[in-house]
Amino acid sequence: MTAYVDGAAVPLEAAAAEAARLLEGARLPLVAGLQTDVAGTRAAILLAERLRGAYDHAASDALLRDVGVLRQAGRMVTTANDVRIRADLVLLIGPRLTRLWPDLADRLALGAPPRLAAEQTARKIFWLGGEPGAAAAIGATEIAASAEQLPQAVAALRAAVAGRKSRLGGALAKNIAELAGHLHAAHFGAFVWSAETLDALTIEALTGLVFDLNLKTRFTNLAFGPAQNAVGVLQTSGWMTGFPIRTGFGRGYPEHDTWRFDANRLVDAGEADAALWISAYGASAPGWRRKVPFVALAAPGTSFPYPPKVSIEIGAPGQDHDAIEWSREITTFTVTPAKAASAAPSVADAVGLISEHLKGNEAC
Amino acid sequence: MLIRLAGGRVVDPANGRDGIGDVWIRDSRIIEAPVGETPDEVFDVSGKIVMAGAIDIHSHIAGGNVNTARLLLPENHRAHVARPAETPLSTAGWSTFETGCRYAAMGFTTVIEPAVPTHYALHSHLELADVPIIDKGILTVVGEDDFLLTLLREGGNRSAIADYLASALAQTKGLGIKSINPGGSVAFANNARTFDLDDTVPFYGVTSRQLTQALQQGVMDIGIAHPLHLHTNNLGVAGNVDTALRTLQAADGKPLHLAHLQFYAYGKEGKRGFSSGAAQLADAVNKTPNVTIDVGQVMFRQTVTVSCDVVRQYGSIGMAKPRKSVIFEGETVSAGVVPYLYKADNYYNAVQWAAGLELFLLITNPGQVFFTTDHPNGAPYTTYPELFALIMSRDLRNKWLADVPKEALEQTTLPSIEREYSFSEIATMTRVAPAKLLGLMDRGHLTPGALADVAIYDDDPADRARAFRHAHLVFKDGDLVVRDGKVTHYRTGRALTAQPSYDSNIDRRLARYYDAAYGLSRDLFKVPEHTIGLDHAFEEVACQG
Ligand SMILES: [Zn+2]
Known about the structure:
The complex is a heterodimer.
Chain A: E1 3-5, E2 8-9, H1 12-24, E3 29-35, H2 38-50, E4 54-55, H3 60-73, E5 74-77, H4 80-86, E6 89-93, H5 97-100, H6 104-107, E7 124-128, H7 134-137, E8 141-143, H8 150-161, H9 170-185, E9 188-193, H10 200-213, E10 218-223, H11 230-241, E11 247-248, E12 255-256, H12 263-268, E13 274-279, E14 294-298, E15 310-313, E16 323-327, E17 332-336, H13 347-356
Parallel strand pairs in A: 3-4, 3-13, 6-7, 6-9, 7-8, 9-10, 13-14, 14-15
Antiparallel strand pairs in A: 1-2, 1-15, 4-11, 11-12, 16-17
Helix pairs in contact in A: 1-13, 2-11, 2-13, 3-10, 8-9, 8-10
Chain B: E1 2-12, E2 17-26, E3 29-31, E4 41-44, E5 48-52, E6 54-56, H1 64-72, H2 96-105, E7 108-117, H3 121-129, E8 135-141, H4 146-153, H5 158-172, E9 176-180, H6 184-189, H7 208-222, E10 229-231, H8 241-250, E11 256-258, E12 266-267, E13 275-276, H9 278-286, E14 291-294, E15 302-307, H10 310-316, E16 325-328, E17 335-341, H11 347-362, E18 369-370, H12 384-392, H13 394-401, H14 406-409, H15 423-438, E19 454-458, H16 464-469, E20 473-476, E21 479-483, E22 486-487, E23 494-497, H17 505-518, E24 537-540
Bound molecules: zinc ion (ZN).
Zinc ion binds at residues 58, 60, 114-115, 259-260, 374, 377 of chain B.
């Protein structure tokens, strides 16, 4: 059995009917987690609109930190493949990058000269602010900077590139000055980072630094987002509503507000009175502190802080069913065929079933 | 289902028809008036204009760059009127859903997204699948990737280039081939800030002209209807009318489509060194019947430019309004998203606006000039109704002329032009010619057997724009989808593709190349035949052989 109401196994249809009852009875139903493939995202956003609810994603903090800087300052960005074939200088910035993306160095072929460079010389590779030893593991020159030093270090790098002085002192200042020299000498450089490990000010400084560098040479960013199709959810939200996640439909049209539609805030403030928690990629539970009745569409074995009203165990995208997902390897969407196709319902299937049980259901 | 559209003014230039009469629809097709059958439904359209559904050949409505623009500019679509949501997400400003609704409401039933890089086609198709009602197609962008440029450097084996193009169409499910400032993305990656027709693509020893001509020939060789769709060099630069004239010559008598020509209609006359060269350019187009063009009209309002001409987009960053831009690079082509505000009291913008209208009005054959704003680059497609009104009425133009700087008008011929488009010319430009250009044989006309895509407008000389914004009735595949300018329900559109056959040896070569260059399978970039989650089906358009 894969569906439960109040902890008791029930047929899938009965669970969907109970889920529909709970969600459409709510004043402000919330779709949260949203860890799913494109088909699941589409279904969930359409459901949120029908319910006049709101939706958010579990990785919103990192996603929206990145989008926040983007819509302040713009950006120059590229793909992993472009860095692989073109970049003669790669500067990684911030901690945990190879933990977030274990194949990063391989994917960028950091050990080989860039295929399309004028001269087939080894790449220059630096890692500013990585954890100790991480740089050496991928053949990069380590420029040590603690998490607290990193924003200053990036600001100092920007100043050094522009020929201005900064207040930074000590060994870091010397390393930064040398690094600025390497940046000036590069033909096509790439900064590699993730909004998961940088704060907004650092991201903004990097964005500005890349624009500055392009006045003379070529530089760009490889900014990779959270895994498990989080970027794909952001993109899908973009074309479906015009806005990123943290969008609500209470007024009959989408409104985006990073504070108002923060899932945890909506629950903790008592504004959301029912929720649909979606987590297809693995055991991931909501982090809100208040108890709101919720429906869980989650991977089998997920343990929740308190029991869901309705729970439907669903299959994993690209494992139990074919999926369209964002791939950071190719910096766009791709199809992931099922590794071991199963009968477990997908998020799209489950949301579809719930939608069919909504009252006033019309064929659209 | 048998439908009679009774007593309207039927404007169907493909059949030489412009007069009062009936149009009959059975299920999804136009039919001859049947004898002795009672229609299931009769629509009295007396006093209305009846045309085939319109076809937009060049409108950036879907894909990664468009989506970046959405995320970059939330302020552009924040305010929106609440309506009861009878159709999902139709109230979402700048969403794919809204795009389908607003196009359908204007009587457009087929729209082509003209800039899909080979590696991002799945994203574009995902978005297009969420554009309801209308049919769509994509043009696949080529010309910047190392594999093709290496082929050219090594002598440009003609059949290999043709196979490469056909394979790109298969991989992306494309309808046609486009190239954008050919070689420009490669030049930008190598630190160039300008790139001209006779500049050499760094490292490959071929000029932009040679690359363009190889692609033009390749597209002819694979036998698809649509000729190479070219966004040529030096877009937006004062004096670039010279580039456009040289590009017309470079076409060498062979078929070519030159995109958004308005952006190349600039001379260097006047105190400010910026004038309209549109009259000269229109004259040249009139003498170059092998080339078709679309206008890319500028209209005065806030918009955002979205283009794979990265040289141009990078160069525009300083003029961005609001001041934030995205430059996106990639292994096969690069792009830029730069917001821009066109203002009627701005000298340069006024010249651009006038130059576009001059092209519309001075190119004599309405089958050679296509109706576009290069959405959203010159203006959003939502300005089409005003633009129709402007080319149909000299009086209206004169009203607008009063609001733009006199100094700008002195650098154009617009004030002296008297021509007004007739409905028949409008139908040729937006129905007959696009269908022919794209090889959509059963569209653009109301011949029995044609697809029953029909748009019916009020005939209101006092407010043409209103009539074009809110069609009276629109049928898609014989299904009534718009009534009094409002979408009644969604239906799923199709994606039109051209899939010429080719020697699959090129796929094996490409597979080896992807392994070596990227360490990845080329299949990752493929738009599959039956993709889960895509709400559109693919409809293959016949090739010429
Ligand atoms: Zn365009």
